[in-house]
Amino acid sequence: MEPWPGHWTPLGATYDVEATNFALWAPDAEQVEVCLFDEDDTETRLVLPNRTFDIWHGAVPGVRAGQRYGFRVHGPWDPGTGRRFNPAKLLTDPYARAVDGTLTAHPAVYGHVRPSMDEGGDHRVRDDRDSAPYVPKSVVVDVHPFDWRADAPPRVPWAETVLYETHVRGFTMRHPGVPEELRGTYAGLAHPAAIEYLTSLGITTVELMPVHQFVSEPDFLHRGSLNYWGYNTLAFFAPHNAYSSSGTRGQQVDEFKAMVRALHEAGLEVILDVVYNHTAEQGDGGPTLSYRGIANEAYYHVDPADRSRYLDYTGTGNTFRVAHPAVLGLVMDSLRYWVGEMHVDGFRFDLASALARSMHDVDMLGSFMTVIGQDPVLREVKLIAEPWDVGPGGYQVGEFPHLWTEWNDRYRDSVRDHWRGAAAGVRDLAFRLSGSSDLYADDRRRPYASINYVTAHDGFTMRDLVSYDRKHNEANGEQNRDGTDDNRSWNHGCEGDPATPDPALRELRLRQVKNMLTTMLLSTGVPMLLSGDELGRTQRGNNNAYCQDNEISWIDWSLADEHSELLEHVRRLLRFRRAHPVVRQRRFFEGVPVVEGGRKDIAWFAPSGAEMTEAEWHDGSLRTLGMYLNGEGIRSRGVRGEPILDESFLLYVHAGAADLEVRLPGRFWATSYEVVLDTADAGAEGRRHRPAARLRLTARSCQLLRVID
After folding, report:
1. Spelled out in words, what is the top-level CATH class assigned to the domain 588-708?
2. Active-site residue numbers?
3. HSE-up (13 A, CA, CB side) for residue 688
4. Confidence class of residue 268 from pLDDT cuts 50, 70 and 90?
5. DSSP run (H or E) holding 44
6. The pTM is what?
7. Going by fewer Cβ within 10 Å, which terminus of the chain is more open, N or C?
8. Domain 12-140 class, CATH top level
């Protein structure tokens, strides 16, 4: 099985009927072997015979799709200069389209000496034990034509988008309509029962937590835990094999495509939460699985003062060096692959500030941002930044370029603080309700640059947000030290959800959940709903359930009956949002009439019925705000330049601890008002009120009124 010369491009394993071409970029290597594994794990090592432009390559005749392989890279072991070559370690192909197997907690997976899993060892001393029995294997994939059935991306405009953050496994594991053998898989999420729920809910876009091939950290595995969330990427082109019901020798690729096709057929977009800021190899004491053993100094930011160590802007031990041309090429090739070959509709970039770092500082004019902005494929898909990392200057909310949207943690904190009664007045809340112009307008961005969320995978669920003052992460095995202590939550006087026999307390907590969901889904910007919040899902106070692959994280679908009122409330809000462009503006409000003598496009009202004064905007004790949205004041136009018209609405958000009578705005603003929604009193809906009349707001409630002209 003598390799032919092959070709240096494309990188990775490229299947052909005659031979499979293998190409690996390893600029400082002295020799590269491709290692083929039989069904009994017998290994055949073949030296790649040619080197072109720092790429080692060769074509191996007779290698078929489904063949498992890896690389062994020879070169100097010199951690002090940043080089960590170790041919005893089998390395995953950075361009692998599929991966078979899992990682085993064994000291041989480390490139350096680690006597046992209970002893850390010395990261500067090389370990020569063979890692092949303990690491996943790359798989040769036949990229054959897939039956996309005239698949077309839904291309939902940003202003109409409603994101639904979910987990492939967690969403499907307990779903009664999904066959047991499909639960936890791509096929399970593509099942008609799962899709019917998503479409009936009213969301437009599914944002999947990481589905790139990931592994659990060896130390987690050793203590009997695992990485459930998946923010620990090994291979950036491969769909995670544990989510495949059909096999892991390349079958996961077609199963993922079939899932995307099914979601698209239902009109739903698919966005991937991607982790390019770090890899599964952790810090200098972490395992050698791929990049570290191929070109350590190129793939990672190393510390110039001690090149055996890494600069850690991610909190995981390493930071992927996306500013390096070859590494940037890998990331861009991966992104284009998921759009072009897998048909996904966009990406949410974990710790995106780390990707924008050139040498050390975050640079929005750097190579990554520039290349994304110029790429004809990627600039057409949805791009969402988690706009921070843990390094100096990493907090970049409001600073990303025009094509990007951002997770807006200012929105999250403002809404949480308002409804727990901790906000200093309502001024900041008004910015959040109207699209966060203070963050995005000065750069001529649009309101949909703001991804409005109150909860996400990282933190409390909505139900836990109103049930716990403190995190309860004991089940994670870290003595409750992990997870943030800044939850901005409120247990309403009783810690814990199971400990609430008081029906009045249960009703108040449910109302508070409704209040936050109502606020979010009626705000200008792009709402993101955390999967299960519409059902009242609880994680029992765990605000960092990254390792909980069990009922703590999986959605309990029996809650759909128990909390049917909450579920219908969310569905109703999403129907309202879809029907009314006045709550999904494409331009920022200006606070002035669109036509001379008309009503303002947006107006803010104090409990007195008058527009807010400067003093009231700075009154830290104010807990009530009225927001008037003028349906005849929409500043954007339709596709043919026609005016966009809608009804007008008045929303009150009242976080005070006592009931309050407010005076409605006078006759200039309406001839009457009709209650559309009241989070405290469903019976109030449909009631009419005269202008300037008194309106009773229940303590801690929202009320939405239609303006009748």
Report:
1. mainly beta
2. 350, 386
3. 6
4. very high
5. strand 43-47
6. 0.97
7. N
8. mainly beta
